[in-house]
Amino acid sequence: MKFAVTSRGDDLSNDLQKRIKEQLMKHGLVFNQHEPELVITIGGDGTLLQAFHDYAKRLEETAFVGIHTGHLGFYADWVPSEVDQLIDDIVHKPFQVVEYPLLEVIIHHNQDEGERHLALNESTIKGLGGSIVSNVEIKGDTFEVFRGDGLCISTPSGSTAYNKALGGAILHPSLASIQISEMASINNRVYRTIGSPLVLPKHHVCLLRPLNEVEVQVTIDHYTLEYRHIHSLQCRVADERIRFARYRSFPFWKRVKESFIRE
Ligand code: NAP
Q1: Is 222 in the pocket of ligand 1 (CB under 6 A)?
Q2: Catalytic status, residue 45
Q3: Do 109 and 209 fall into the same domain?
Q4: 162 CA to centre of ligand 1 in angstroms
Q5: Above 90 in pLDDT, residue 222?
Q6: pLDDT tens profile 154-174
Q7: What phi and psi values does residue 175 have, to the nearest 5 degrees?
Q8: 233 with 131, same domain?
Q9: Any ligand 1 atom below 6 A from CB of 165
């Protein structure tokens, strides 16, 4: 099997990266940074997010497994003390694949085809230097006109990240859906928004169309893009999915509990 190992870059993660690479090669696995079947990330969820974007063009051929060298992660759910066990499992066990939904974002500048992006956590749209006023269309119909700091559209596995800080719900990743949550909406007699996070199923497309002359900032996970103007931001559940290599069970709700309630 071809594998790659990525590191957050701190000493502990780099040491583990070296050790895992050497051990797996000693057991006959092939180190291949360009076309890996398994990507082992060492660091945190941010390290796995980066690896996802690095290998986004070959999601069908690549599975991910994350080791966290900081606090427990949602994607990085192995700890350094389990590394020998993980190496043994990788060498001796075929892994089970668990797939999570992704978000497809298409940024349209005019009536063009648009720039397509995939997000593992979320995409956000904000006004730069002022509130954004945006038409929110769901499945072809205007739902509301939003005015405020911005909107966050997250995946189920990203629902524990920025979305959670915005008061969004935590969604189980088996639900192929996207969630729209508001950032400081202005609500008065002129502007009225729903105020609650919305969860859309796979076949519903959400189109955000800025109406005012504000410059916009669009984020795709940890990447930030800035535009003088966009025509629209189109979001839906992507056809692609991320594949995680599972060697042992660690249920999602247990990870939520251990991350946010107690270890
Ligand atoms: P960062 O600002 O360095 O770290 C953001 C934090 O979010 C890190 O603690 C990271 O965990 C954690 N995180 C990432 N994905 C997560 C997930 N699915 N569930 C729970 N926690 C998660 O930024 P970054 O490392 O480049 O990550 C970018 C992400 O930051 C964005 O996708 C967004 O979700 C998040 N963010 C959150 C807020 C907020 O909560 N107010 C604001 C902006 C952005 P690790 O330490 O394990 O890497």
Answers
A1: yes
A2: yes
A3: yes
A4: 7
A5: yes
A6: 999 999 999 999 999 999 999
A7: -90, 105
A8: yes
A9: yes
Taking only the tens place, the pLDDT of each residue in 25-71 is 999 999 999 999 999 999 999 999 999 999 999 999 999 999 999 88
pLDDT at 107 over 80: yes
Residue type present at position 118: L
Q: Does ligand 1 have an atom closer than 6 angstroms to the CB of 25? A: no
* Residue 163 marked in a binding site: no
pLDDT value of residue 263: 66
Residue 111 has pLDDT above 80, yes or no: no
Q: Point out the catalytic residue in the list 11, 15, 45, 54.
A: 45
Q: Do 150 and 215 fall within a single domain?
A: yes
* Cβ–Cβ < 8 Å for 120, 260: no
Shared-domain flag, residues 27 and 56:
yes
Say whether both 82 and 189 belong to one domain. no
Structure token digits, residue 20? 């895992």
User: Do residues 138 and 201 share a domain?
Assistant: yes
Amino acid at 245: A
Residue 124 shares a structural domain with residue 10: no
Q: What is the pTM of this model?
A: 0.97
Identify which of 106, 71, 67 has the alpha carbon closest to the alpha carbon of residue 225: 106
pLDDT given for residue 235 in this prediction: 98
Task: Kindly provide the residue ranges of all beta strands, DSSP E only, lying in the chain, ordered along the sequence.
Answer: 2-7, 30-31, 38-43, 63-68, 76-78, 96-108, 115-119, 122-128, 132-138, 141-154, 177-185, 198-201, 206-210, 215-220, 223-227, 232-246
Measured between its terminal Cα atoms, the distance across the chain in Å is 34
Q: In which domain, by residue range, is 59 found?
A: 2-95+247-260
Give the count of domains, the chain: 2
